[in-house]
Amino acid sequence: MSELMSELLQRVDAKGVATLTLSRGSSYNSLSIALMETLISELDLIDNDMSVRTVVIKGAGKGFCAGHDLKEMLDSGEESFYSCTFNTCSKMMQRIVSLSVPVIAQVHGVATAAGCQLVASCDLAYAAESARFGTPGVNIGLFCSTPMVALSRAVSQKHSMELLLTGRLISAARAEQMGLINQVVPDDELDLRVTDIAILVASKSRKALSIGKTAFYLQREQPLKEAYETCSQVMTENIMTEDAIEGIDAFITKRTPIWKHR
Prior knowledge:
By secondary structure, this protein is an alpha/beta fold. It has helices spanning 33-47, 70-76, 79-98, 114-121, 145-154, 157-166, 172-178, 190-202, 206-220, 224-239, 242-252; strands at residues 2-5, 9-14, 17-22, 54-59, 103-107, 110-112, 124-128, 132-134, 170-171, 183-185. Helix 1 links the parallel strand 3 (17-22) and strand 4. Helix 1 (33-47) packs parallel to helix 3, helix 3 (79-98) runs parallel beside helix 4 (114-121) and helix 9 runs antiparallel to helix 10 (224-239). It comes from Neptunomonas antarctica. Keywords: Fatty acid metabolism, Lipid metabolism, Transit peptide.
């Protein structure tokens, strides 16, 4: 097990899973520029760490993430600072999507505005029954336009617009119905459920996970014919990897595969 500890972010590695904990609990883990830059840097390190096959993002304190640090932004009052904040956030969300291993959001408390965007950007998401989600920017005259990018790609148009236009918070059960999260879990079972899922995903070939995740986001934006052409080529390349050859042989001979992650 390895650990990284800082005032902004904590990282603990175990069983192929890197758990990243946002550590600004006193401000509901609001996304200051420093926190976002720290998370991006850690994801860059993870991308080159072959011992990591799954990432979990969670929040310290009473909630997952309440969005941008509005106090930091108002204290600045500079357009250049606002631009830097939103551009850094966009870079962070894209880094999660482009990461070579799956990312799981573990949500408790609130996930609002850019915090909801963070959930929508992750590959999987599990939430406590008491969790709440929303994009309430419209309530303060600041429409959640950047959160809209991830949200509109994670759930349907009507559901996205409901959240964006009303600014209301929704329950974890409603978020599950919308497809924003995978599953609602009793509060006291959230840690165990996410750990089980993370370890299960981490037990797979890192090479296969990377190939599959990259192809998923690529084909999703393509027309049907082009998507099939892309994924046919991807599968052809995939089946020629060492792990695919090992996995197929293990399946035929009824044994557990030994991954080399290449």
